[in-house]
Amino acid sequence: MNTDAETGQRFNYLFGLINLVAIFCIVWLLWYIFMNPNTVMKLYTPMYGFSLVVGFLAAIVFLNNVAGGYPFPETLGRVQRGILMTVVAFLLMLFLVYVVFWGFIGKFGIAYFSPQSIIASGGQGAEIFNARENASTAIVYYCTAFLLIALFWSTGFGRWPWHTNSRAVTAWSKFFAVTFFTGIVYTLMFHPHVCYLFYPAQDKAGVASWWAEFAGTGSAFFGLGLVLCVLFWIIVSDLLWEGYPWKYLEKDGESTWAKGLVVFIVTVGLGIIILYVLMSIMNYYWDEPFMGGQYTDGPDFRFLHAGEICGFFILAAFILKNYFNNFPNTNSLALSAVIRTILAVGGGMLFYWFYYSPLATFFLAKVPGIAQPGDTSLVWVILFLSIIMVQADFFEGWPLKKNRAK
Fold first, then answer.
1. For residue 36, how many C-alpha atoms fall within 13 Å in the half-sphere facing its CB?
2. Are residues 89 and 191 in the same domain?
3. What is the pLDDT at residue 201?
4. What is the tally of structural domains in the chain?
5. DSSP 393
6. Domain span at residue 352?
7. What angle do CA 211, 214, 379 make, to 5 degrees?
8. Do 388 and 248 share a structural domain?
9. CA 301, CA 222: separation in Å to the nearest integer?
10. Which residues of 13-23 are buried (b: 16+ CB within 10 A; e: fewer)?
């Protein structure tokens, strides 16, 4: 079985490395302008900045994986198309956060999505900083649920069951389907926790966290960690395994309901396994966590940290795919897939060590140490992923790739 990557003779790995360095510098510049707490915008509070970058990533995934590039004409040049779609993704992020959540849902439906509605409702902690952090937390969770469903649908169901319809019908149908299931995932996995961010707890709007007894915490970091662990397998199978073994369930080159169901069941199972493994490793180094434990002793941090670690793995997988031609490209896809997965995990650990080193403390002005309440590596990772995806999907790899994607 052959891989779909370019041959080693055609791909310039040195150019790929140079491109990666350039992207790293762009990410650092954006971080310096928007997130660095000592410079211009100071958006990294951290949840406010978190909500903006995850909203931007959700907009990118929506345009590429859900809408499939619709309604942008396919005849546009790569540079023109890339610039246009990047601008649209940025405007979508602003529209999603400030109009949809702050101005509409938070104003007329669910108060905790809007800082102004939280302040107007009164109660302890109803001041602008805490209100904005709580509203941003809810937006982060909703966008995370959207990313899970959108990327799962792209890998599992693809264009099914609308593959015989036009681009417009497919785009709108996938949008409504993904939005419907996003609402279910958010309601079950995150809404109960958000209702308990306030005093008194909004126990008539949301039940107590149903996972608290077996997870040891009522925090939705449990759901966030689990979702990111599942996303790791969805993304790895799509990028590094080139869609296998799921492609064996396709019919005439298109996804089927059986493929989607199998992808969902298997990736969730693998996500639970990797979450358990990462939690066991943390238990080995930091002993058993306990409810009410601070920093590394808290079960909530352990679940979040498992998700953060998978975030580093996902970042490394995207880099291996886009800047190193999915190295290695052997005659056996199975062998290549195993080596690529190992490289993604190893590369993710390198990013992990960088982020928690004095280098990142200096360059990103982050809080020193690992378990700090004012810091989460996911913000930097998602910003990095967003810029990689803009180049790979909107600009179709330009200028690294000379030929247009099929």
1. 16
2. yes
3. 80
4. 2
5. I
6. 9-42+209-393
7. 55
8. yes
9. 9
10. eeebeebbeeb
* End position of a domain, from candidates 181, 203, 225: 203
Nearest to 145 by CA among 108, 202, 110, 184: 184
Q: Radius of gyration (Cα) for the chain, nearest Å?
A: 21
Please give the structure tokens belonging to residue 72.
């942008």
Same domain, 218 and 96: no
Is the torsion defined by CA of 110, 113, 117, 123 positive or negative?
positive
The contacts of residue 246 (CB under 8 Å, 6+ apart) are 155, 156, 237, 259, 262, 263
Q: Which of 9-18, 113-122, 230-239 has the highest mean pLDDT?
A: 230-239
Find the Cα–Cα–Cα–Cα dihedral 47, 49, 54, 59, rounded to 10°.
140
- What is the phi-psi region of residue 42: left when phi exceeds 0, alpha when psi lies from -120 to 50, beta otherwise? left
Identify which of 51, 61, 70 has the alpha carbon closest to the alpha carbon of residue 162: 70
Cα distance between residue 300 and residue 220, in whole Å: 8
Is 132 within a domain?
Answer: yes
Tokens of 384: 């990095």
- 105 and 250 in a single domain? The answer is no
> Which of 182, 203, 224 finishes a domain?
203
- Whether residues 297 and 179 share a domain: the answer is no
39-78 pLDDT, tens digit each: 889 999 999 999 999 999 999 999 999 999 888 887 888 8
State residue 2's pLDDT score: 46
Q: Using CA atoms, how far apart are residues 141 and 137, in angstroms rounded to an integer?
A: 6
Q: Which two tokens stand for residue 142?
A: 């909703």
- Other beta carbons within 10 angstroms of residue 404's beta carbon come to 11
- What does 279-310 look like in DSSP terms, one character per residue? HHHHHHHH----TT--GGG-HHHHHHHHHHHH
Report the residue count for the chain.
Answer: 406
